Amino acid sequence: MDCKKIHYFASLYIDEMMSDGEKIQFEKHCEKCEDCKTVLENTRLMTESIKKISDVSLPSNFSASLSERLRRDINRNKVRFPRMSRKIAGLAATAAVILLFVIFANSNLFTPMKYDESVEEFGGDMAHGAPSQQSTMIAEDSVASKESNVIEGSSIRQFSADTDVEVGFAGADVKTDELRTTKIHTRKIIFSGNLSLEVDNFDQAYNEVLRLAEVKGGFVQNSNIYFYDQREDEKFKAANILLRIPKDNFKLTFAKLQDIGNVIHQGISGDDVTDRYFDTEAAAKNLEIQEERLRKILEKAEKIEDVLRIENELSRIRLQINQLRGQLLNLNRHIEMSTISIDIREVRDLTATINPIDEGLWARAVSSLRKTINKLVDLFEKLFIAFFAALPIMAIVIMILLPVGIIAKMIWKRSRRD
Amino acid sequence: MRDLNQHEISLIRESKNGNSSSFEELVSPHYKKAFNTAYRILGNLEDANDVAQDAIIKVFKSIGSFKENSSFSTWVYKIVVNTCIDFKRKNKKQQVVYLDKEIGEKNGGLVLEIPDNAGTPESLFEENEVKHIIHYAINQLNFEQRKIIVLRDVKGFSYKEIAEILECSEGTVKSKISRARNNLRKLLASKLNEREEG
User: Which of A79, A121, A164, A211 has the fewest CB atoms found within 10 Å of its own CB?
Assistant: First the structure.
């Protein structure tokens, strides 16, 4: 027996919580060990003394005040909700919180922007862009109207949207700075877009792109189809297509193209070529005026030498004019017909590989089970995210509710004490 | 103590239905023990009064959840002890008051916490003094150990009952009791030494 544990055994010995074997062993030890014996005796003396401590009598009003409190408590209980319904109220509150969570999780407020949603938004944005484009065209018209001294105002709108700006310039002696003042209202922008799609059915998607191009008054400028991946039994097609779409239809077409497949990448850009356009335009005009003058001089020329020099000059100017006009024409083509570059990749339909080919009853059941599980997983993910999204709001709510709760508790306590 | 007699069972059933006089009949035998337990644990008569009453009200409120196959008295004292713990937790500041009283005791002004001794025979004076020393030594123990000494040595609960009241194993009770007694023994020894020297 270990003397260090004497107080433990002494305690048990006094309370007779030892087995007979232990008891005999302990007694033997105490006979030999004086220290342990003292500890045992002191402890025994102490416990006996403690036992002798007499009970304090109850305060005289104990029973009376207690029964009064009991009666008051019963009366209060009658007023208060029964225990059961309080539990139900708690459950209902919990359910309400969960419900709120689910609603939050499903609402746009807390859901992180899913990819397709952001694309949709983009589509909406483009719809917004349409009116501004229209106004650009009206402004273009206004340039035309200024040039031909037509009154400005509502009548401008009567001009067809397709009015060629060049018409306005025809036959006028245009100075560059005059053009510069007008160009503020007119923007010459080349729109281009690029789009990467993943599709399940390549041929269908490809035909859809071609059809869209045709319907929207555009054309396919370039198209390459190739196999990008070959496995044992499968070949995957891919294509890059360059579409030219009239600028008025650009945004609508771009949005529609996105519906064909799963958008991997998309982007649009607008190249503002206003400066270049009007500079070229002005240079061409000036050269044309110069050409006109040279022709007049040519008519008056008498010497063969002069005639030859003037004709030489004329052909040089004509060449320059043609170059500039060609540039303008090219620019106009790009402005009028926006470019959309599309990459289409065929991908294997993932569900198709998991699903058995024969969709029997069992298979359908399994697939619906899988769908439900996926939805559940999705829901939990959303809940998890929503929890974090809602944290700041919850913090505010708690900050508001906590003092209210504390005050309510204090009032309740006070009323109970009374 | 374990088995409830038929009369108690019927009283418990009536109490569960909200009958306060049946409840009082059922619990009144425990009033004194509950009050004394609270008094020894808290070391203060006023607090003991409040806590014992609170505990009995609690017993009444939660009697619906009492299972009839367990010991009623143990259950009552469990609630008393827990109410003491709650009270202690809520009124940590009150500890300062106890300290003041201890200082008061050293100056010879000990009245408040000593039970009424009027009518005690002279011959028992010596024994009473030992009791006072023990009482203050118990109050000097930390709360955990005071609780266990009160239950085991003052109120004489069995190891099994203490295990039920404190919701721990009997093995834990054994070691807790031995440790508390060891501490109390040392405290008493130093107290007695102080007295002899003083």
Answer: A79
Contact B180, B93 (CB under 8 A): no
Interchain proximity B188–A51, CB inside 8 Å: no
Nearest 5°: the CA angle A301, A303, A304 is 105
* Residues with Cβ within 8 Å of residue A236, at least 6 apart in sequence: A202, A227, A228, A229, A230, A345, A346, A347, A348
Tokens of A251: 């945004």
Cα A313 to Cα A305: distance, rounded to the nearest angstrom: 12
Which amino acid would we find at residue B11?
L
Look-up of token digits 């809940």? A383
Domain ranges of chain A: 3-49, 120-346, 350-417
At residue B66, φ and ψ (nearest 5 deg) are -75, 130
Burial (0-12, 13-18, 19+ Cβ within 10 Å), B83: buried
Q: Is the Cβ–Cβ distance between B184 and B145 less than 8 Å?
A: yes
Cβ pair A193, A267 in contact under 8 A: yes
| Amino acid at position A323, single letter | Q
The predicted-structure confidence for B26-52, as pLDDT tens digits, reads as follows 888 888 888 888 888 888 888 888 899
Ranges of residues in chain A whose predicted pLDDT is under 50: 81, 110-175, 183, 350-355
Q: Measure in Å the smallest separation between the Cα of A15 and chain B Cα atoms.
A: 9
pTM for the model stands at 0.43
Yes or no: say if A309 and A212 are a contact pair by the CB < 8 Å rule.
Answer: no
The residue with tokens 């003058």 is A293
Q: What is the DSSP code (8-state) at residue A152?
A: P
Beta strands at A189-199 and A337-346: parallel, antiparallel or unpaired: parallel
Nearest to A53 by CA among B133, B5, B52, B122: B133
B29 vs chain A: nearest CA distance in angstroms?
Answer: 11
CA A250 to CA A244: how far, in whole Å?
Answer: 9
Average pLDDT, chain B: 77
| Angle (nearest 5°) at CA A162 between A161 and A168 | 100
What tokens appear for B5 in the block?
A: 């007699």
**Domains, chain B, with CATH or none:** 1-113 (1.10.1740.10), 115-198 (1.10.10.10)
Instruction: Compute the distance between CA of residue B53 and CA of residue A292 in angstroms, rounded to an integer.
Output: 119
Residues 6+ apart with CB under 8 A from A258: A119, A123, A195, A197, A266
Are A195 and A254 spatial neighbours (Cβ–Cβ below 8 Å)?
yes
Cα distance between residue A312 and residue A355, in whole Å? 78
Q: Which of residues 83-142 of B touch A (CB under 8 A)?
A: 115-116, 127, 130-131, 134-135, 138
**What are B47's two structure tokens?**
């607090």
**Which is nearest to A212 in space by CA: A167, A177, A176, A258?**
A258
Residue A267: CB atoms within 10 Å = 11
ipTM of this complex: 0.74
- Would you give the DSSP letter of residue B154? I
